[in-house]
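Methods: example folding runs. The two proteins below were folded one after another, and each record is reproduced exactly as written to the output file, sequence line first and structure-token line second.
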Amino acid sequence: MRFHLSDPIKYRLSFKLLLYILGCSIILALLATAVQLHNEYGIEMDEVHRTRQLIEKSYVEAIAISLYNFNEDLLQIQLEGLLILPHVKYVQVSSAGQADSFKVTLGEKFNRRVLVWEFDLTIATKTKPAFHFGNLEVRIDLNSLYGHLFRRLFVILLTLATKIIVAGLFFYLIIYYLITHHLEVIAKNLGNPDLTEGYNPIQLSRKRFHAKNHDELDLVLNAINGLLLRVNKEKQEREDAIEALRESEYNYSQVLQNANESILVIERQQISYSNPKTEELTGYSNDIILNQPVTIAYQLCDGCNWDIILNSVRDQDGNPIQDIYERRFQTQKGEIKWIEIKSVGIVWKGEEAALCFISEITKRKKAQEELQASLNEMEAQVEKRTIQLSNTNEALKREIAEHRQTEEKLRYTTQVAESANQAKSEFLANISHELRNPMHHILSYSKYGVEKLDFTEKSKLKHYFSQIRASAERLMRLLNNLLDLSKLEAQKMDFSFDASDVKTIVTEVTKEFEPLLNEKEISVNIIEPDLDLETTVKCDSFRLGQVFRNLLSNAVKFSPQQSNIKINFQNLLGPKREESQLIVSVSDQGMGIPPKEKTVIFDKFVQSSKTDKGQGGTGLGLAICKEIIKHHHGKIWAENNQQGGATFFLQLPIKISA
């Protein structure tokens, strides 16, 4: 779409801007007029309100006195004074409830667009209280008020319209001479630019307030001139590129024509291009080769599958790849040659094609055949020698393997024997110590009792028997542990599985330790499980209680004075309810477990290095716990707490088979 200077004024930018400005100005003028009229109306109504207040304060009482005295002349004067007030056009005074009532009116009575005020006339005397004896009616003419407002509206609109029209015309002339006139010149120059003579910048003849400073119109003009400069530059570059392309095409044609190998372009199963070297190599003229189906190439090349060549020039992503083929070739004269074909995918005249480079490799192929024959003979000799060496190596490997197996068996047997001997020594040392202490106590206290039976007090004898009983019970527990572990390992321990509440078992075991807990001022916190948490499992409640006794005994043993032991319950949900697990944790605030010993403390006769420093024990308790939990198809393990101490975890199936 072109812009012409002769176009109607309604299509000009300055005229459109004028219309927009006039429209916005009219809307703003109407809003301002409405606001001003509202203020004028408020002023008039305030004047009316003040008139009513003036009547109530200054006239009502005086008129009441005049009416009471029947002074008609004075009433006439007072009513005339009321008519002088703004917008008051009619007044009337009348008496009420009297036989000789009378009425005095003044002004013109009207009923349309009127505001009527009525005032009660009352008076009080020395002998009578205040009483009502007449009425005052005042009518306000609203027509005069509205007429005043309409006159103000006309004056305001006329004044604003004059200002808007004059300002709009001046704005139109300013916009036209400052902007749109120059835009017309720019549009005229851009309508039909002449780039044949090079770059000709557009110039405007205009005056600016500051000749050295550029305004927005100068910026637009500079941008347009820059665009024209770039267009002219790109036009020149395109012409140079076309010339360079022509030169490049000529150079490529010279390269292809004088190449030292045959070059073919195959598209749509036809040979579209062939260079002179092809005619020299094959003996066939280009008239026979060009624009012929690829089937003619089958006749020229022995074993050349051109379908494979055409289909293998691009990979799975469509990117060009290069393949190399070596084939025999028969020339027009019947001579057999070896050729090497290199194919790569290209785009030829907008279509996918194969670019093939064909080189003669007859001499190289003959040299390769001679070299291959030599290599075959050498490989045969090497293979023969290799077989001999292989047989010798195999015999040697078998002998070395047998020797290594013997060494491994001997080393393993030695390690097992050493481990067994060390375990036996440690067990004998521990068990002898554990057996010797209670036995020594039994013998010592029984000796004291026998020697001092006749002259010792009963309280001391009771103490001797108590110590003998405690040592015997400790000895019995040790023997029971040995028997239990022996039965568990021999699979001869009897279990009685029933549905039992694990929380109840833990609570009962905890009560057994109350004397020891009170002695060390240790509190046991059994965290109440949630209502929906399942704590009932199928188990041997006696054996499971034995596990909790051992764990709680260890926790009390290693916990310091005035510490806390916490027992918690949680469920590990499985795909089905019967596959869910119950996890019970027993946490103490003791010295914890050395990291290297967490995996071995459940082995037989193994004691923690911290236990060896004075806590006592044989290393059988946790081993028995592990075997009992194993028979319950569960797991037991231990972890150190971040704040100190250790936590032992028991994981039991909610429902297990005995």
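Second run, written to the same file directly after the first:
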Amino acid sequence: MQGFEIAGEHDFGFDKTLSWQLATYENEFRYGDKPNSEDNSYFVARFDQKEVGYVGLEDRDTGKNYAYNQVDGGSDPWNAISNHFPSGFTLDPSKMGLSWVELYKVYVNEKDRLVANADFDWQYNNQLAVKFGAKYRDKVRKADFADEFYAWDSEQYGAAPTLADFTLSDQPGRSDYLSEAKFDYRTQLSQVASTEALAQFWTQNRNKFKLDTGESALISNGGALGRNFDVEETHTSFYGMATYQASDNWEVLGGLRVTRTDTEVSGYTYLADEDKVVDTTNSNDYWSILPALHVTYRANDDTNYRLALTRTFARPDFGSLTPGATYLEQDNQLNSGNPALDPTYSNNLDLMVEHYFDRVGLVSAGVFYKDIQDPIFQATSVGNYNNKQGVTIIRPENGDSAWLAGIELAFNRDLGFISDSLSNFGVMTNATFMDSEMQIPERTEKVAIPRQANELYNFTLYYDDTRFAARIALNHKGAYIEEHGGDSQSDSYYGANTSVDFTTSYQLNEQTLVYLELSNLTNEALQYYQGEQGRPLQVEYYGIRGMVSINYQF
């Protein structure tokens, strides 16, 4: 990541100021030198032990045997999914042959080639201040991606190596892997070879592997189109605003912003009928008119009432604009882009009252309503792709309309109002409760806005005497829809998550501060499920994370 900025500010008399800025930024992502500088990638070597004799799988006239959760009429509870190995089975490194080597290659370069803005402030008189200006941004994103699978060339070099041909050791976390789940997975794990040994083996024997184009995600076979694309986008904005102090109690702020967006996306599209990939370029340009009105009434020095009427918009993410798609074999999933996406606009109403205490602290309450046009959501369907059946196809789409409404509450205060002995203790808490609704194509019933939980709340209890400080915080986010399917049972959710964090610090002297941070004390699981919690797609545990630091100021 690198950047450069130059800015200036010029006064014209005591009431006029011109400020300006010119900047350029660049950031880049690529994997390091694993397994070597030529093949730098996320490097994976897979060893398989075949014909293990799974038990307890069911054939429901699909031609294949699967395990089913209880919610689908099977025997596995959602938090204790069996591996269905035979009783007494263990992985044997001497029977685990090298199936393939994967080179997962990613390169992303993003630039703000030019960011330029200028603002002019004019304090016209004691009651009226005006401000106007312009901003220009020229952005570009280039992305290259390939997921290459290489198989051992057994025709020329005989049987593939086995895991037993390498020096093995316990991988980190083997002894307590998924100990939170109600199934003993860790006893089935084999020891593993080190990444360094496998990388060295690959580099020395690369000529003994063949690229498996059928398994790989490449531009040539249409499997990596969704992440190989370039975007160029420019934003040109003009705005004007005025703040009018009508009296000691009333303040009115009004403004208008006009923005021009020009977007061009270049990528690749796979033509299934002709079995070929063609270059594709799409463009979109539009004007956005964004008015705003803010009114503040100060009832007294401690209490404010605020009203805001605004129109805002959000452009589609660059990743959503790709003309191609990427197929994920392990999930039988096709992630597609949509260069025809329109921006999302929202007309917003906000009302809030806030009261400040004599000592440090405040209490506030507010309501909000958003009327949304062209909301973007992830549409999910099941179809066929590149001779593969039952593929889950995920593609961003514009919905018809949506609304979001809710209330916000906050209370921050030390406890000195109860007793002077508690003045170093305090609480900080806030909560937001929401409801939302949107209409999307091919769904008769209305659905919730994606990534919008119905409740968010945080509660922090702290102690701070300027030398020693400690805080414990509870943070909660309710479940929310991530991707919409054809019906409610096909919707994909992130589960509700409640985490507990703790931080403390001690000022040893004027120069030295010792700091401790502990996160996720309850080891809360990250859950991703389809339709209902009993049908999990993904459950992850990250454990408690901690950091100890010393800050010394010279």
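Comment on the second run: The first strand starts at residue 2 and ends at 12.
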